Amino acid sequence: MKNSIIADLIRIQKKISFIVLLGVQLVFLAGVEGISMIIKLGDDTSKNFETFTGLGAGSMPLLIGIPVFLAIYSDDFKSHAMQTAIGRGLSRSKLVWARFIEVVLVIFESTLAVTIVQTGMALIAGVKAATIGSMCLDRLVEMMTMISSITMFIILVYGMQSAVLALVMYILVGGGFVSGLLGSISALVPFLAERNIHLEYITPGTLISSLAINPEYNYGWAIWLLVVVVYIIVPVWLTTVVFKKKELEF
Predict the structure, then answer these.
(1) Nearest to residue 55, comparing CAs of 125, 111, 123, 138?
(2) Is the dihedral of CA 164, 90, 105, 79 positive or negative?
(3) Sorting pLDDT into bands at 50, 70 and 90, what band is 107?
């Protein structure tokens, strides 16, 4: 399992599409933050920089999440690397968990790169230390959101032995389209609006952001544990169960 993870990580680091899109994300973020030093939306320099950084980092689920998804899951089927790994003795359960670990590591690496660029630009702009810490927390939230959003749909990847539908679902959820739609429904349907029911909180992005940004909604580690179980552990475990019963396609 360890060798499989290391070999795959080396392959991903050499993948042109992943390198290019990560580079685009970093350049885009730095560019937007550079603009914040010229265009002032208010008197608070730190708040102004944080606002522009949020705009620049908002593309992370697409510019980072999509290439990670394709590099780890789509390429696994196209290159038949999965079948080769299983043929060499790696169990299907270990394969599923290995690919999940790769998702975590690659997204962490990408988020770290974004955070370093963000912090460097913030220091140049003279942003307050408290604001820099707040922005680092925002990147951590986005990292957790990307991991959770990808993990939600890997059962489709292994169940259908294709990453296409799962990728589409990830884009809709990770890109915020589903949460926006559910938020609109919650506001427009009288029954939901009167009872203050927000359907958008079933999406990992909205839920994780609310827990991190609004302390009054955070009831301790139990809630975070529930998030990890519901959006990560259960989907990966269910995937191993489904995948064990699937006939491999060559």
Answers:
(1) 138
(2) negative
(3) very high
